[in-house]
Amino acid sequence: SCLVGSEMCIRDRIKTKVKSMMRVGLKVNVVQKTKKTAGVITKIMNARCLVKMTVSGTIYRVPMTMLEAA
User: Fold this and answer.
1) Which of 12, 17, 20, 69 would suit a FRET pair with 26, their CA atoms being 20 to 30 Å apart?
2) CA separation (Å) from 40 to 13, 25, 27?
3) Helices (H), 1-70
4) Which has more pLDDT, 6 or 25?
């Protein structure tokens, strides 16, 4: 069903799978180069999620590629 190219097809499948796993209220870790920070998803958008950080209470717009389930 993917006519554009195998790379785009694979990327789309991964993105769809990751997005289907994300739920509002899910505890996640925001993964950066040198650290992981705990947070909770408050809203899910196209390619990003709003994540409320556990320690500071600050809400950030985080790309789904930087999130992992806690």
Assistant:
1) 12
2) 24, 6, 5
3) 6-21
4) 25
Strand intervals (E) in 1-70: 27-31, 36-44, 48-53, 59-63, 67-69
Give the Cα separation of 55 and 64 in Å (integer).
20
| pTM greater than 0.85 | no
Tokens of 66: 């930087």
Distances, alpha carbon 7 to alpha carbons 13, 20, 45, 66, in Å: 10, 20, 23, 20
Distance CA 31, CA 60 (A): 13
Residue 5 near residue 13, CB atoms below 8 Å: no
- Give the Cα separation of 39 and 60 in Å (integer): 10
| Three-state secondary-structure class, residue 50 | strand
Q: Give the Cα separation of 23 and 9 in Å (integer).
A: 24
